[in-house]
Amino acid sequence: MTLYLEDFEVGQKLLPLLKGPMTTAHIMRWSAAMENWHRIHYDWRFATNHDGLPDVLVNGSWKQHVMAQLLKDRLGPEGWLWRLKFRYRAMDIAGDLISANAEVVKTEAVDGLGFVSFRIFISNQRGVTSTTGSAVGVVPLRGGPGVPYPFAPTPAQQAIELPGDDG
């Protein structure tokens, strides 16, 4: 289903994307796919005894992927995730249930396309917000042209900035 700029409202919270509980197998599969062999992602004894961590850590690059997945899924098949910025603020560990969230903070039409700005964050079942950030997505205007593929912003569109992440 195509989503249009008019389908987004400031203050609207998008349906969260839930992952987990994260197992060591989930974490290790991502580590292997990314060829990230740091032992904090698969070796409990090393992570806890050597590095003093609470458990095996969820990969930061995986959390980045989850945020991109959340936004791409919620922008719809005609939408384009254009800009994404995030900060890791805390650790997520094996056993955590991850919730990726987004709230619309601005909508605007520029040169015939819709731009939706989001505040984004990842939290877990312990109430910890581990990752914060912001993003801008591009969607069509109702009755307007589709978002071109690949998206190449006009100078006016290029001037659209990421919102602050308030984190």
Q: What do you see in this structure?
A:
The protein is built from 4 helices and 5 strands, in the order βαααββββα. The protein is α+β, with helices and mostly antiparallel strands and 167 residues long. It has a domain at 5-22 and 58-142: Hotdog Thioesterase (Thiol Ester Dehydrase, Chain A, Roll). Strands 1-3-4-5-2 form a 5-stranded antiparallel beta sheet, with helices on one face. The model has no long low-confidence stretch (mean pLDDT 95).
Bin the helical content: 10-25%
Which class of the domain at 5-22 and 58-142 in CATH terms? Alpha Beta
CATH architecture of the domain at 5-22 and 58-142: Roll
Q: Which sequence of SSEs, written as H and E, runs from N to C?
A: EHHHEEEEH
Strand content: 25-35%
Arithmetic mean of pLDDT: 95
C-alpha-based Rg, rounded: 18 Å
Count of helices?
A: 4
The CATH topology label of the domain at 5-22 and 58-142 is Thiol Ester Dehydrase, Chain A
- Based on DSSP secondary structure assignment, what is the total number of beta strands? 5
Q: What general outline do the C-alpha atoms trace?
A: elongated
Unreliable spans are none
Q: Sheet with the most strands?
A: 5 strands, antiparallel
Fourth-level CATH superfamily of the domain at 5-22 and 58-142: Hotdog Thioesterase
Q: Strand sequence of the main sheet, in spatial order? A: 1-3-4-5-2
The N- to C-terminal Cα distance equals 32 Å
Helix-strand makeup class: alpha+beta
Walk me through the topology:
Elements: E1 17-19, H1 24-34, H2 44-50, H3 60-75, E2 80-88, E3 98-110, E4 113-124, E5 129-140, H4 155-158
